[in-house]
Amino acid sequence: FRAVNIGLVNEMAVISDRLGIDVWEVVDAAATKPYGFMRFFPGPGLGGHCIPIDPLFLAWKMKTLQYRTRFIELAAEVNAEMPLYVIRRAAEALNSVRKSVNGSRVLVLGVAYKPDVNDTRESPALDVIALLRQRGAEVEYHDPFVPGLGLESGDLMSVELTAGRLDDTDLVIVATDHTDVDYELVGRHASLVVDPRNAMKDTEAEKAVVYPIAGPPRNGRTIVPRRTQHD
Questions:
Q1: Among 58, 78, 98, where does a domain finish?
Q2: CA angle, 223 as apex, 99 and 210 as ends, to 5°?
Q3: Residue 51 DSSP one-character state
Q4: Residues 92, 13 within the same domain
Q5: 119 and 72 co-located in one domain
Q6: Residue 231 falls within a domain, yes or no?
Q7: According to the model, what pLDDT value does residue 154 have?
């Protein structure tokens, strides 16, 4: 149930981006309906020991009985593609200032699969880091709950979130929206932020241009014209 509905809202995020609208406003508008609506949120993918995995056991079992669970398989496909979608969003943000992912310094905020835990099982942040490294980015991460990561592409240790580090970073990606992160500091010192978790929604981004998961980038409450076009 959750995997399918999250897959639907993730696809709505991709659709909203193509339409140039903010998917979070779409979700908020739908939530004004007093009945018949359950709120789900888009994000950089699915994580944890349950939602990304257990439905696929059912899909496998049904294949042995000559039945294809199309909703489950399609939702899994959409959700699995979200880390790559985040990378494309990151490339768009960097291209807006005439930079490429290759050689850029990227800080990933949060690597646990959900806020305020230390569990990284199936976390989409790990896929985001791997994809960034494959494209030549210099990647660091900050997570107050996860001091270190053992990755196939090389181990990483959580770095301190400071004004100086943010000033020297080309791009920040909010992969997990921990509550114990100073997003105001990010808004004051980062130049570009890709925020698929909507963690920056209540911050006054004095410096940062924030790219939500879908729709136009913003600086504070000001919409910034997009400088790239979809294929």
A1: 78
A2: 50
A3: T
A4: no
A5: no
A6: no
A7: 81
Catalytic-labelled residue, pool 21, 30, 50, 80? 50
Residue 50: name the closest of 103, 122, 112 by CA.
122
Please, where are the H alpha helices in 145-226?
163-167, 183-189
- Tell me the per-residue pLDDT of 163-206, one tens digit each, with 9 for 90 and over: 999 999 999 999 999 999 999 999 999 999 999 999 999 888 78
158 to 33, 70, 139: CA distances (angstroms): 42, 39, 11
Residue 2: C-alpha distances to residues 8, 136, 154, 216 (Å): 10, 34, 33, 28
pLDDT tens, position by position, 103-142: 999 999 999 999 999 999 999 999 999 999 999 999 999 9
DSSP SS3 for 152: coil
Residue 95 belongs to a domain: yes
Alpha helices (H) along 96-162: 124-134
- In the chain, the largest separation of any two C-alpha atoms, in whole Å, equals 58
The model carries a pTM of: 0.91
164 CB-near residues (< 8 Å, 6+ apart): none
User: Which of 59, 78, 97 represents a domain boundary (last residue)?
Assistant: 78
Q: Is 170 a catalytic residue?
A: no
At 196-220, the pLDDT tens digits run 999 999 888 788 999 999 989 988 6
Bridge partners of residue 106, in order along the sequence = 139, 171
Phi and psi at residue 206, to the nearest 5°: -65, -35
3-class DSSP state of 87: helix
